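Whether sequence alone determines local backbone shape is best considered at the level of individual chains. In the encoding step, the backbone of a single protein was reduced to a row of integers, each denoting a local shape. For completeness, the protein is quoted in full, as a sequence line and a line of structure tokens.
***
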Amino acid sequence: MEETKIIVLPTKGEKPDLENGSIFFIGTATVILRYAGFTILTDPNFLHQGEEVHLHYGIKSPRLTNPAIEIEELPPLDLIVLSHMHDDHFDRVAAQKLDKNIPIVTTHEATVELKQKGFNSTHSLNTWETITVSKGEVTLRITAMPGRHGPMLLASLLPPVIGSMLEFQAPSGKTSFRLYITGDTLITQQLKEIPQRYSDIDLALLHLGGTKVFGVLLTMDAKQGVEALQIIAPKTAIPIHYNDYTVFKSPLEDFMQAVTAAGLEKQVKYLKHGETYNFQVDVADFS
């Protein structure tokens, strides 16, 4: 039976705020997005400093940082967007303590594992496929973006990964805000299709870190992060997924230097764990 591609969320009838939104950075690839009446969590990782994630093929990596908040401090959530099933993106704390009824949008392979963990509102997307989430007067379209978690020869041995395009549509039907999340990916030819399909991206969250296992690059390092900026050309970009685990070999400082060398510093906002990026949207264009 094919899964539904529509999610209807309950609402208390409050008027959504289309003018103001925020990104709260918890750590790794975990953020809380608040906009247009939605509260969305990405890639929940709440392990503490010194605790290990278990990656594939017996590989372990200790965490070097702490999350900005504990999982018990999360606000009420509407849904979770998950790029793929790795411990540093959906850890044992999340598996144990998150509400099992919360909608989770992710890959097909991740939904299988999540269902085994007791989560019963999972929704899978293939690349370029869209799910519609409605809450009151506002509609959110989530479309899976291409991603590849490693070079071609290794990609088949790693969990499939998606990026995400989140498009918030005002009651008029016009898109008021467009957010792109890269997911754990390297620069690929397919990534270059994104700006052909989406020429106006308001904000991008870049998964960086330069993850290396046995010397093989599995996520974008500083150089590829700048290349992604140049390809996608968002109005603003925020780097995440850096400096948190020992397998992350490309520190944020390298990316900052590469951004400056490329003359893109006005395009990038940097957040420390626990910091918030507030954004404003001109709603006059969407009435």
In short: The chain has a mean pLDDT of 93. The first helix runs from residue 92 to 97.
